[in-house]
Structure formats: structure tokens, C-alpha cells
Write a structure and sequence with these properties.
By secondary structure, the chain is an alpha/beta fold. 28% of the residues lie in helices and 15% in strands. A six-stranded parallel β-sheet has the order 3-2-1-4-5-6, sandwiched between helices. A six-stranded parallel β-sheet has the order 9-8-7-10-11-12, with helices on both faces. Helix 5 links the parallel strand 4 and strand 5. It is globular, with a radius of gyration of 21 Å.
């Protein structure tokens, strides 16, 4: 029996067993709150507006956030007093540990409503999620369904709207304590992190443009530092075959990357988890948007004070899908096609060097010299 199947059996059986008594004890106040999901890094970080709002609206609550085990080090400082609980469907041991948790008074399910079954298995008395997920069986345990926004809105703000009341104060870097990290090779002067990796080849920028960007930043007095995830080292080799600039590709874990970004004068990255981590560390960030949606992934209300800017070509003809987490929204324009459906990332190739340098210049401290003209 596979791990995912074992997870599913355990969750379904426990949710059904809890169904008759799940809402017992209602009216006793909200002391324990669960945020249930199975999202990638960027989407997990975009849940921060909801975490901040729960803390602002229910100050004494014990707030538990599910997260993939690899992400837990980022939350070691317990931003907003949140506890993180390891969860991944591919490891049934994480579910066994969750089932030992005391019951939750309130649960928010984000992204995929199938995790309302997990919330029910954890004896959440009230479960709130977004409406419209398919098939309807995913939402059998949802007590309150709320629609996504009818007009363009940052997804993090839409998630925060699952809880009634005023928004939390906008984010500031002091809200997220620095996680402990093992020593690593840090640049000693002013530097820019160029993160070339992405979750799909369709989000990768052209290697020659990365190198031209690195050369321009070096001319401007910033040391370029290449970054990429484990196994993505060949992407850096393609960008910088002569190895002119320092590379930490595949050598920094997430906690070390947090500290690397926190000390950087600039981060340039595709629309991926590292670009969203740049918001958490308050690093001046230029995010390159090809198939993704800048309005959905943008700063929105909560991150509005962060030095973060999206660069892409708008509109782009094949960025034409209107679906967000299986909900069809008329204002959405994004592309979730696979490499089998899209031969090459024309939307990323359309992003020139000049707009990236211009965006970086807008974040440059006053008095710093301009970058050389784009080639």
C-alpha cells in the first residue's frame, strides 16, 4: 500500500468517524485555529495575510499552519506566534502525528478543498473554505463557503478574506523573526541575488539575459550571486559558463537562503517561491512573470509596503486561462500549461533586459549610480 493511499484511508476513515460529533462543544469560543493546505513554497508564503489577520482578530488563539517538512525551518521563529505542523500526503507518518492534535475550534482550508476532510479528521468544529471547487465531494465537510473576489485581487488578500473583520496591519520585516541557520559562504560587500531556478522550465528566463543582467549589476557595484535549488546547478552553468560570478546554487538550504536574501541589495527571480520569500525578508525584489499572474501574486493590501515589483509583458496572447485552483474567474489571465502543451516559454523570452534593469533602478537607494545602458 503506497504512502498516499495510506494517508487517504486514514483521513477519510477518521473524518467519517468524527462526523456525528465534530460540531459538539460549539459556542465555547475560538481557542485553536488550523490552516490546512498542501501548497508549494510561494503559495504557502502567500498565506501570511491570513495568519496575520487571525492573530489580530483572535489574539489569544493557538494558530497551527500545515506545511511541507522542508518549509518548517523558515517558521522556526514563529511569525505571528504560529506553530507549523509537518504535513505531506506522501508521508503517512505526518498524518499520524497530526491526528494526535487536540480538536480545533476553527479551520481554514485554502487552495484544494480536499483538505477539508483532513480538517474534519482533526475534529475541527467549523471549517471555512472558498466555494466552487470540483468535484463537490471535496467540500462535504465545509461549513461555510466564500466566493473568490469578483475583480482582480491578490490571492493572499482573498485568502485573508476567509476571516471576517478588518485587515491586519500591513507587513513589516520585524513581523518575521530570522530563522536559525548553519554558517555558509556569505558575500562581504553589496550584492544582488540572481535566482535562476523555477518549478517549471516555462518560468525560466534566457541564460544570455541572466548573464547580461549580472554584468550590468557588477558594473553598477553590486556583486552578482547566482542562486538555484538542488539539482538546478546546470542552469547556472548555462548562464555563466566561465564561472565569472559566485554561485550558491544547490548549496543553501531555505534557512540559509532567508539570510542570503535578507542581506541582499537586490533579488531578481522568476515568479517562484524565492520571489515571494524576498517579500518576507523585505529584500528589493524584481519578479519575472511569464505564465503566472502578476495581479494574483502581487503585493496586494498586505504586502503593499514591501519593495517588490513584477516585470512581464502585458497582455500576452497565450496567457489566457481563467482558472485559479479549479475555480473559473472572469478576470483571471494566467497559463498553467505543461511543457507537453507549450514547446517554449515565449512569455518569458519576451521579457527584455531593459525593463528588468529599470525596475532594479527604481529600487536603488538615492545617490547610487545608474546601471549602464541595456545591450
Amino acid at each position: 500500500m503506497g504512502e498516499r493511499f495510506a494517508t487517504r484511508v486514514r483521513v477519510v476513515s477518521r473524518a467519517l468517524a468524527n462526523a456525528p460529533r465534530r460540531r459538539s462543544g460549539a459556542g465555547g469560543g475560538t481557542r485553536r485555529v488550523l490552516v490546512a493546505h498542501n501548497l508549494l513554497l510561494g503559495d504557502t508564503l502567500m498565506l501570511t495575510p491570513l495568519l496575520a489577520k487571525i492573530r489580530a482578530r483572535i489574539p489569544a488563539a493557538d494558530i497551527a499552519l500545515l506545511a511541507r517538512p522542508a518549509f518548517l525551518p523558515l517558521y522556526a521563529g514563529r511569525p505571528y506566534g504560529v506553530r507549523t505542523l509537518a504535513f505531506t500526503p506522501s508521508r503517512s507518518s505526518t498524518v499520524r502525528a497530526l491526528l494526535d492534535e487536540p480538536p480545533f475550534d476553527l479551520a481554514f482550508v485554502v487552495g484544494d478543498n480536499r483538505y477539508s476532510w483532513l480538517a474534519a479528521a482533526l475534529r475541527a468544529r467549523r471549517i471555512v473554505a472558498h466555494a466552487g471547487d470540483r468535484p463537490a465531494s471535496k467540500s462535504w465537510f465545509v461549513d461555510e463557503s466564500r466566493p473568490y473576489a469578483a475583480e482582480p485581487r491578490a490571492w493572499g488578500d482573498m485568502v485573508a478574506d476567509l476571516l471576517d473583520g478588518e485587515d491586519a496591519p500591513p507587513y513589516c520585516a520585524a513581523d518575521w523573526p530570522a530563522p536559525p541557520a548553519a554558517p555558509f559562504e556569505r558575500p562581504s560587500g553589496r550584492y544582488a541575488v540572481l535566482h535562476v531556478g523555477a518549478s517549471t522550465p516555462l518560468k525560466r528566463w534566457l541564460p544570455e539575459r541572466w548573464l547580461a543582467l549580472a554584468e550590468a549589476l557588477a558594473h553598477d557595484g553590486l556583486e552578482p550571486v547566482w542562486s538555484a535549488g538542488p539539482g538546478e546547478e546546470p542552469l547556472v552553468e548555462a548562464c555563466d559558463p566561465s564561472r565569472r560570478f559566485r554561485s550558491l546554487a544547490g548549496r543553501a538550504d531555505l534557512a540559509q537562503l532567508w539570510h542570503l536574501l535578507a542581506g541582499a541589495a537586490l533579488l531578481v527571480a522568476p515568479d517562484t517561491g524565492v520571489a515571494h520569500l524576498g517579500r518576507v525578508t523585505a529584500t528589493p525584489t524584481v519578479a519575472l512573470f511569464g505564465p503566472g499572474s502578476a495581479p494574483i501574486c502581487g503585493r496586494g493590501r498586505f504586502w503593499r509596503d514591501m519593495p517588490w515589483e513584477a516585470v512581464g509583458v502585458e497582455p500576452f496572447p497565450c496567457r489566457d486561462q481563467r482558472v485559479l485552483f479549479r475555480r473559473e474567474l472572469p478576470w483571471v489571465r494566467r497559463c498553467g500549461r505543461s511543457t507537453a502543451e507549450c514547446a517554449e516559454p515565449r512569455c518569458m523570452q519576451a521579457i527584455g533586459l531593459a525593463p528588468v534593469l529599470e525596475a532594479a533602478a527604481r529600487m536603488r537607494p538615492a545617490g547610487h549610480p545608474p546601471a549602464p545602458p541595456a545591450r
